[in-house]
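Input (structure):
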């Protein structure tokens, strides 16, 4: 907690006095008592003094205000700022007892950099790390249970894009392994940050699945798709609906390191 003293006064004659904060005791200076308070287990008095020689052992501040000119005072308790480096800068001339402040500067608070997000791991089912969202018109595409994509028949572009807050590992010597169930043919595409902002995703493969019904966990189809070269790390993958009806469930997704040369796609 921070104790702040608010003081208002008026004087036709400039008179120098001193505000002093002193620990209560037999050696407390004589002056006008403004407030009493307790901080960290110590009883303190806030005084207005006319004699600067009487403030030894006290913290003090000179003000141009006479004792009889104090109209109103109030002691308030303020919460400290949340940011440890919050501060103001006073710029001016501090060479004598009457400092001249020319500018008050409030520095811009710089938030600490967020902790680095660990990359997606290898050889683990990471589908739970991805959040899907649908795109397209006419309600052609819908997502159920996060990773079950249902496409209705139609000619307009539709599908689902899956993103993760975690980063894909740098380098392209990786294989994406997908385990799917359902029925129909779906197109797989990848995007990096530039493609998401300016271009369409890069189509890498067409996946044919025929394990109806889509929730049959004992009938699964696995696909191994070598990740193509990219100037930037991949950020998302997309499943594009065909013209016909399709129901596809993503059962598993994993990234596997590989030793053979990466595949390039035009």
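Output (sequence):
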């Amino acid at each position: 907690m921070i104790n702040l003293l608010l003081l208002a006064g008026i004087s036709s004659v400039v008179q120098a006095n001193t505000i002093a904060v002193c620990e209560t005791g037999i050696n407390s200076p004589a002056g006008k008592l403004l407030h009493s308070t307790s901080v960290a287990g110590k009883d303190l008095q806030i005084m207005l003094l006319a004699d600067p020689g009487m403030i030894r052992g006290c913290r003090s501040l000179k003000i141009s205000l006479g004792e009889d000119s104090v109209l109103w005072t109030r002691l308030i308790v303020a919460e400290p700022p949340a940011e440890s480096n919050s501060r103001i800068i006073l710029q001016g001339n501090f060479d004598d007892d009457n400092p001249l402040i020319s500018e008050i500067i409030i520095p811009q608070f710089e938030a600490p950099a967020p902790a680095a997000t660990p990359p997606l791991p290898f050889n683990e089912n990471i589908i739970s790390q991805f959040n899907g969202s649908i795109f397209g018109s006419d309600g052609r595409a819908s997502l159920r249970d996060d990773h079950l994509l249902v496409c209705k028949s139609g000619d307009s572009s539709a599908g689902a894009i899956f993103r993760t807050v975690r980063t894909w590992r740098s380098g392209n010597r990786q294989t994406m392994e997908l385990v799917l169930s359902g029925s129909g043919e779906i197109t797989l595409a990848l995007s990096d940050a530039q493609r998401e902002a300016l271009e369409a995703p890069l189509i890498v493969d067409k996946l044919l699945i025929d394990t109806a019904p889509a929730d049959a966990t004992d009938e699964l189809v696995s696909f191994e798709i070598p990740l193509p070269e990219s100037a930037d790390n991949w950020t998302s993958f997309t499943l594009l609906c065909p013209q016909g009806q399709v129901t596809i469930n993503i059962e598993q997704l994993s990234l596997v390191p590989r030793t053979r040369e990466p595949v390039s796609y035009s």
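Notes: The helical segments are 193-198. The two ends are 64 Å apart (CA to CA).
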